[in-house]
Structure formats: structure tokens, C-alpha cells
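Problem 12. The chain below contains 343 residues. Write out its predicted structure in C-alpha cell notation.
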Amino acid sequence: MSAVAGSKIAIFGAGSVGCYLGGRLAATGADVTFIGRPRLAELFAKTGLTLTSLHNTEHKVAPEHVQFSTDAAVLADMDLVLVTVKSADSDLAGLTLARHLKPSAIVLSFQNGLHNTGILKNALPRHRVLAGMIPYNVVNRGDGCFHQGSDGVLEVADDKALAPFLTAFEHAGLALQTHHDMQQVLWSKLLLNLNNAINALSGQPLKQELSQRGFRRCLALAQAEALDLYRRAGIKPARLTPIPPKLMPKLLSVPDYLFKRLAARMLAMDPLARSSMWEDLEAGRQTEVEWINGEVLRLAESLGQPAPVNARLVALVRSAESGGRRDWEAAELLADLQRQVKC
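Solution.
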């Protein structure tokens, strides 16, 4: 069952998130084309795609049914394009899409960061470009297997242009939650993503890291710093979790036994789930720390305020990108961040 008879969906940026979303859609009958690197085209031609989740679901796309292209020219036939490239590649993605998309094509950004949709809009002034947000972690387990390691619902801009495609997402088990103000959603997601740096520096699976009060207190420091800047700037993040954003730092700081009782949903994730930032470091790629903790620094600069905790996390991740330390213990990292606040 496709979105509309004859409609075509493209995944522009066949990384973990793109392969998972596109794979789920393709596995349930949508006409999906992946656009990415030759090595993935060769891999999927042998393995196909396997999509699993923490809920023990499994979907498969046989090798002969994986439509994969290394040539962006195929975009000319697409009706909906899901952009899942890293934030650093948004400018190039916009230029590529502008060269190939037909006027009626819709673009939906599922990327980390606050400004990717704006970058794409600038490159595509005549197209419908919408913001989306993927709340869960996706792990590349190798051999064409992509695993959803945590829970959540896809969030997208409330726009009638997406109406023809809603059935395809629902059929794939990827129902879309619509929002009138996606920027509030993205500010809220940024708060949650501040943990990506901490997880990458810990070298531990997400569940193991978040089960330790010391690491949670590191996240609480980063979030409290960001929330103070939000308040000063008049930014009101959307409520995406049972706990209001302003109370998150307090919740994160409670003892382990109490946190497990009060925040069971936060720990409802696969024991092997990792952050995308950890995955980038493992693969030797540039991380998105500039578009996560770096956003807090830019907000602080615009307000003439300091942001020492997030500045330190940016510095530590950049060091890790160059071979620096990635095995911090909770007490060590917490003490290091607390020193930044006292300086």
C-alpha cells in the first residue's frame, strides 16, 4: 500500500535514521528509493534491509526490492523527500535538491538541530519544505540491520501537504504526530539531545549511562544552563515527555532508585542503544555537537551570557573526534563540568 497510487518517496541521506524510516515504509509497500553512497548500494544488494525494534518487531525488505541509487538525478521523479543527512551537509543537500526536484515535490527534514529546515527552505524557495523530528535512537547493527533502540512518535509540522502520505506512514507503524509550532518541538528535542555528548564521552550504552546518577547530573547541568537561556530569550519548548522541560534537571538529579521509579519511560530502551554521536565517533566521522551543544553556545552569545557547561562538552567531543578520551567515568565528568561552573 503506497501513500497515493503512483506516488514515490525518496530517502536523501541513507544513514541509520534514513535506512530505518525508509526501510519501514518499503517493507509495508511504499515506493521508496534510497539515495546514498555506493558501498551501501552494494551492501543492500546482498543483504537487503532488516528493521527491528525494542518492541521485538521485525520487518524485512529483500535485496531485489531495495531501490537504491547513487545518482541524485532520480529525485526528479519523487513526490516526497525525507532528508536525513547530517546537519553539516544541509547546505549541499539543499543545492542538490534544487537541481533535481519537480515543483510539486514535498521536502520533510528529519535532522538534528534547529535550523536545517530553514537552510533547505532558502535553497528551495518554491517548494514545500517542512520540519520533522525523530525522537528515538536508531542503531546500525551491520549487514543491513537497523534497530530502533528507544521509544517515541515521529513529530512533523501540521500541513495539509502531508495528508496524502499519512496512510503510508500509519501502515508502516510510523504514525505522524502533527504540531502547529515545530520550532518549539525542536527546542525541546535539543534539551534531550544534550545527552548525546555525555553518552559519547562515557563510551557506554544509553541505558547504562542514564542509570547512573553522576552522568544524569552532567545532563542536568547542561539542561539547566540551556533552560536558563531559554527563559531569558522567551523560548518555550514543547512538552514531549510526561515531565515538563523545566523540571527535567531536578528529575535527573534524584537518586538512582527514585529515578528508576519516576522515569521508567526514559529508561525504556534497548540495553545496546547508543547515541548517534557515539556512533559517529566509532566510525571516525565528524559529530553533530556543533548543531546540538553548539546551538546553546550560539544562543548564549546572542544574549551576552556564558554557557560554560555546554562549551566544555563541545570541547571534549571535539577532542574525542581527534582521538581524545572517550571513557569518562561519571564522577570524573561531573567534577570536570562542575569546575566550569565555578570558574
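Discussion. The domain at 9-180 is CATH 3.40.50.720 (Rossmann fold). Students who got a different answer should revisit the alignment rule from Section 12.3.
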